[in-house]
UniProtKB/TrEMBL annotation:
Protein's recorded name: Rrf2 family transcriptional regulator
Keywords: DNA-binding
TM spans (from-to): none
UniProt xrefs under NCBIfam families: rrf2_super
Domain of life: Bacteria
InterPro entries: TR_Rrf2-type_CS (IPR030489), Tscrpt_reg_Rrf2 (IPR000944), WH-like_DNA-bd_sf (IPR036388), WH_DNA-bd_sf (IPR036390)
One Pfam family of this chain: Rrf2
């Protein structure tokens, strides 16, 4: 599974908003997370249309979360900028069909989707901003092999 730059940048930007007590401009978000400003502008536009952030123009304007950080999961943000969490050849696993020796491959893709959902839907922006990841996520991190590339 790959996490797109859009999803990574979107999560980093909204994590900053979750940690902030006031609105933040695109420039502030880009500088804080070392993100390309123009690319971030497009991402914030998508997040605004998808109801993750709201924007305000004028003095003291900028972006803020559209609802409490505890109510927005990482899965919400990824879906807003990239669509469904797991695709296989551009299709959702539930739309696929395999025959013969690969028949159970569909079950593997669905299990992968469930696993990704399990992590991304369990972590809220508040969790991320406060550094308090849920126990099931931290349990996965306890396995040293999780940190190794294979």
């Amino acid at each position: 599974m790959r996490v797109s730059a859009r999803a990574d940048y979107a999560i980093r930007a909204v994590a900053e908003l979750a940690a902030s007590e006031s609105s933040m401009t695109t420039e502030m978000l880009a500088a804080t997370q070392d993100l390309p400003r123009k690319f971030l502008e497009g991402i914030l536009g998508v997040l605004r249309r998808e109801g993750i952030v709201v924007s305000q123009r004028g003095l003291g304007g900028g972006f803020r979360l559209a609802r409490p950080a505890s109510e927005i999961t990482l899965a919400d943000v990824v879906r807003a900028v990239d669509g469904p969490l797991v695709f296989v050849r551009g299709e959702r696993p539930s739309e696929l069909h395999y025959d013969g020796a690969a028949d159970d491959l569909l079950k593997v893709w669905v299990a992968l989707r469930a696993s990704v959902r399990g992590v991304l839907e369990s972590v809220s922006l508040e969790d991320l901003a406060k550094g308090t990841l849920p126990a099931p996520v931290t349990a996965l991190l306890a396995d040293e092999s999780a940190w190794e590339s294979h």
